[in-house]
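Customer escalation, tier 2.

The customer says the design service returned an amino acid string that "doesn't look like it belongs to this structure." They asked us to rerun it and document both sides in this ticket. The original structure tokens are below, unchanged.
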């Protein structure tokens, strides 16, 4: 699905066949999840292949590396250029881009490494959560305590929490999980931010226990540009009662409707919600049919 015998990846300064990209058995990142990554999309626009908000993504990659003291020896501009070159070498225009900064050195102690490594891969990937509105369930697992880890860094190890929560939800017949924070307020999905619509306004969790996604920020900007009020505040699952719609956002998922959260069924079909309006504007934006909105 992700690569074949012709696929090239970028690894530590070289473009090599994906099948030759390896990581040693004693790498610190393999044992402890000590790595950071980004999920980025490129689109085939009327102006050619364009990576959506490459600068914002690679600035966040640098932030994540700093947050866990992982060396990264590539500038934002170099990372962006590598991305375009890798897309071209793999003959891809619409594609998902996965840069991964990691520590390959054999290192079993719990201290930061002195050198870092970079892998970048690209592949064709449809919308991660599909296109049908989702049935969510409140997870028994919480988002990590923001005082325990740098929650706004996109750290690979954090996603063990996401895998556990998502797998548990699907084992109970739901499409995806919705995680709360340590105070019982709605945080986000395992890999996407959550919004709901009530009385003509949008509500979403603020900074704290969430990763403030680049797609999330873009949707907020698009909404406010349109005159839609967006409330970034803490709320509990009970506030979803009476909501007319909901959706999730993320680079891999883009914008996907939510039909229900446990026994709360949203009263409008997604196509009639503010989320659907914003999804259409987002699609036009990433496909080069509208001017970019800065996050």
């Amino acid at each position: 699905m992700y690569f074949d015998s012709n696929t090239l990846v970028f690894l530590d300064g070289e473009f090599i066949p994906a099948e030759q990209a390896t990581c040693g058995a004693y790498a610190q990142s393999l044992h402890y999840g000590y790595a950071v990554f980004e999920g980025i999309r490129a689109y085939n626009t009327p102006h050619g292949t364009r990576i959506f908000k490459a600068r914002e993504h690679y600035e966040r990659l640098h932030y994540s590396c700093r947050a866990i003291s992982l060396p990264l020896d590539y500038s934002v501009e170099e990372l962006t250029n590598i991305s375009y070159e890798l897309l071209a070498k793999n003959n891809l225009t619409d594609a998902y881009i996965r840069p991964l900064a990691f520590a390959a050195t054999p290192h079993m102690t719990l201290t930061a490494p002195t050198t870092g490594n970079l892998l970048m891969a690209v592949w064709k990937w449809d919308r991660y959560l599909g296109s049908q509105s989702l049935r969510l369930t409140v997870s028994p697992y919480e988002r990590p305590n923001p005082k325990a880890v740098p929650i706004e860094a996109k750290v690979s190890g954090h996603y063990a929490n996401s895998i556990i929560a998502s797998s548990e939800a699907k084992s109970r017949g739901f499409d995806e999980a919705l995680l709360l924070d340590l105070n019982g307020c709605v945080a986000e999905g395992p890999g996407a931010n959550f919004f709901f619509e009530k009385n003509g306004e949008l509500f979403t969790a603020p900074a704290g226990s969430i990763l403030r996604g680049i797609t999330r920020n873009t949707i907020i900007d698009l909404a406010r540009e349109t005159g839609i009020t967006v409330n970034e505040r803490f709320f509990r699952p009970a506030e979803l009662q009476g909501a007319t719609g909901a959706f999730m956002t993320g680079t891999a998922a883009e914008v996907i409707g939510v039909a229900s959260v446990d026994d709360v069924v949203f009263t409008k079909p997604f196509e009639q919600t503010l989320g659907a309006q914003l999804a259409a504007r987002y699609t036009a934006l990433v496909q080069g049919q509208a001017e970019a909105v800065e996050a």
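Tier 2 assessment: The sequence is consistent with the input. Residues 134-286 form a domain with the D-amino Acid Aminotransferase; Chain A, domain 2 fold (CATH 3.20.10.10). DSSP finds six helices and 16 strands in the chain. Sent an explanation to the customer and offered a walkthrough call.
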